[in-house]
Here is the input.
Amino acid sequence: MAKPASSRTRKPATAPATLPGADHNRERPGEPESYKASKEELLEFYRQMLLIRRFEERAGQLYGLGFIGGFCHLYIGQEAVAVGIQSALTPGKDSVITGYRDHGHMLAYGIDPKLIMAELTGREAGISRGKGGSMHMFSVEHKFYGGHGIVGAQVSLGTGLAFGHKYKEDGGVCIAYFGDGAANQGQVYESFNMAELWKLPIIYVIENNGYAMGTSVQRSSSEGELYRRGESFRIPGIQVDGMDVLAVRGATETALEYVRAGKGPILLEMKTYRYRGHSMSDPAKYRSRDEVQHVRDTSDPIDGLKKVLMEAGVKEEDLKSLDAQIRKTVSEAADFAESSPEPDASELYTDVLVEQY
Amino acid sequence: MGLEIKMPALSPTMEEGTLAKWLVKEGDTVKSGDIMAEIETDKATMEFEAVDEGTIEKILIAEGTDNVKVGTVIAMLSGEGEETPAAAPPAEAPKAEAPAVAQKADESEAPAPKKAESGTSNLAGAKSAPAADPAIPEGTQMVRTTVREALRDAMAEEMRKDDRVFLMGEEVAEYQGAYKVTQGLLEEFGARRVIDTPITEHGFAGIGAGAAMGGLKPIVEFMTFNFAMQAIDQIINSAAKTNYMSGGQMRCPIVFRGPNGAASRVGAQHSQNYAPWYAHVPGLVVIAPYDASDAKGLLKAAIRSEDPVVFLENELVYGRSFDVPQLDDHVLPIGKARIVRPGKDVTLVSYSIGVGVALEAAEALAGEGIDAEVIDLRTLRPLDTATVLESLKKTNRLVVVEEGWPVCSISSEIIAVCMEQGFDDLDAPVLRVTNEDVPLPYAANLEKAALVDAARVIAAAKKVTYRS
Ligand SMILES: Cc1ncc(C[n+]2csc(CCOP(=O)(O)OP(=O)(O)O)c2C)c(N)n1
Ligand SMILES: [Mg+2]
Here is the structure.
C-alpha cells in the first residue's frame, strides 16, 4: 500500500449519518477497503499511471513547440483516479464520461496513445479525425462518451447514459467524472435529484483537485466537503484519497457493488491535485510553488505505488525498463502525431448531420 | 549528447516572450516537474518546467532577454537517461529541431506541417487603422491603448463615478480576469464591488438581473459568451422582458459582457458568435465594438444605460492597440454605426473582428482601383440602418462581412434591410462573406478554411463591382 488506509482515505463514511437530524435508516454503502492487488495488477496500475504521466509531459512539450494549439488540460497528478476507477469497470458494459481534462481517462481505457496524440495535433488519424482536439475526444467503441468543454454538462449527460443502462437493462453503470468547480453548476443538482428518484446506475466522481482554474474550493463552495453534496438528494457520498490508486480502486468496488444492486446513484469525492496549471496558459499565481512541491514530495500517486511495488519485491531495474518502454510508446505516438497528415479539406463539411435531406 | 531546451509557447497566441529569470544554473541537475525558468508573455509570467532528467549543460539565453522567439534554443541539457538509450530524450529530440515557426528544410519528405498555425491568424492580420471618429473633437490628444486596457478603464471610470456599479463573474477578482481584462479592479474597488463567483452562470446571471431590478447596476462578466448559454434564459426571459411586462415600472439596467466569437484552436464548443442570437431579442441592447476607442466609449455608455446590454468583445483583439482619445469622459452614443474608411465603389459592412478583415480587404482593393467604404456597425440592436442605406445610396453595392455563421445572421438582417429599404439603390445583389456553415473544427487547416478572411471579401467585392 502506498499509504495505510489512513484517516484521510476514509474520514467520513459514517459521519453524515451521525449528524444531528440525519436519517439513520438511510441505506449506506459499506466501508471501502484498500484494494488487495496482485503483483501483476500493481505493475499494471503503475504502467498505466506512468503512461499517462509521460504522455502528458510530452503533450505539454508539443504544445510548447506549437504542435498543439488552443486549450490543453493535463492530467498530471491525478493519474490514480482514472486508473483506479477504470480498472474496476467491465469493458463493453460500463460507460464513462468526463470533461475537457480527458487524456488520462482515455489512456486508462487502453485507447491507443497514437490516436489520442494525433487528435491533440489535429490530424486526420486522430480519434475525432482532428475535428475535436484535446477537449473533445470520444470512443463509442469503448463506451467512452467524451470529452466535453462546457463545465458541468457531462453530469447531466452521464445521468442520461445511466438512464439508458437502466432502460435497456444492460447491467451497465455510468461513471460521470467532474471537477470541484463543476460541482457548483446547477444542472448537477437537477441531475442528482432525478438520478436518485429514478434509481439510476451511476457513480458520480468528483475529481477534487483543489482548484477550478484559479479558484480554490474554499473560495467557491459553501460546503467544501464535496462528498456531502448528494446528501439532500439521499445520494450517499464517500471521500477517497485520490492519490492512492489502491484506495481509489477499493472505493470503486464498494460503489459498484452498491449501484449494481439497484440502490441508485452514489458519489465518490476523489481528493487529488493537479501539478500543472489549469491549461497551458495559466500562470498559477493562486498557489505557491511550495504547495505544489509538497504534494509532489509527499503524495505523488506514482511514487507511492512504486514503494508498494518495491516492498512486493519488484526491482528498480524492472521499473526503469518499464519507464523506457513507456517513453518509447509515447515517443512513437508523438512522432506519429507530428508526421501524419492533416484532415482532407473536404472533412470541413462532413459529420454536420448524419442524414442527407 | 545534449538535449536542446527551447523557448516554449505558453499560450495559444504566444509567438515570443521575455526570459525573465532562470531558476537553475549550469551544472544543476533537473528532473521532470522542476521549474527551470520564469517566462513573461504578453499576458502573464509563467513558470517553465523541465520534462526530462539531466544536467543543465549550458544556458544560451541570459535572463532578462526580451523578444525570445518561441522555439529558440535557450539551454542545453545533458541527458541522464543514458542507461535506457532507446528512450533517452536525445533520441526523441530530432523531431523537435525546427523552431515552432514553419521552417522546413525537408519539405518534400515531410508532407505534414510541423507547426499547426491557427486559422485565426487570418482574422488577426489587419494592420490598417480605422479612420478618425468624427464624434471625437479635433485636436484631442490620443493614447495608444489595447482593447483590453480600454475595457478595464471604462469599468474603472464608471465604478469611480457610481457606487451602484459592481462587477461579478468567474475569475474577475483575484485572478485578474481569465483574459486579464479586469486587471487591477479588485485592488482599487475591493471585494465588495469586484466579486469572484463559482462556476454557476445561470445562477449569477440571475443574481445580477435581480440586483439590477432592485436598483443596482451590475456588470456581469462571462468568461466567454459560450458559457452564457447556461445563463441565456435569465438574459432573455428575465432581463430583456421585465421593463415591458411591468409596463415600464421595473427596469433591469445590467451589462452582460465578455469575449465572443472564434478564438484560436479551441474547437466547436468554445468558438461561436452569439451576436445574431441576442440581436434577435427585443428588449436588449447589443453592442459589439472593434477598436479600443469604441470599446471604451460604448462600454461606458452601456454601464450608464437603463436597459440590459449584451456587450460582445473579442479575445483575438484584446491585445491590439488603437488610439483612444484622452478625454475625462469618453462616452459614445449607442445605436450609431461608424464609417471607418470612406470610399465610393462598394460598401463593406461589418462589426467586431470582421471590421479588421474588411479594412484589410479594402486596402488590397484600393490597390486594384476599387475604393471601398467600410462601416463598423458597433451596435447591433438597435441597428443603425440609416448609415448603411446612405452608404448604399452612394456606392450602390454592398458586401456584409461577418465572423459567424451565415444562416439567420446579422448579414441576413442587413441584406433584408437593403432589399426592403434600399432596393432602388442596388446595382448588384448584396453578398455576405461569413464563416462556413459548420461547427468550428480543431484541425488548423480546417479551422482556417472555416473562418472569414480578406481574400474572400476581396472576391465578393469584385463580384458586386463586376470586376471578377
Ligand atoms: C459553463 C462553463 N463555464 C466556464 C468554463 C471555463 N472553464 C473551463 S474549466 C474551468 C474550471 C473547472 O474547474 P473544475 O471543475 O474544478 O475542473 P478541473 O479543471 O480542476 O479539472 C472553467 C471555469 C467552461 N468551460 N464552461
Ligand atoms: Mg478542479
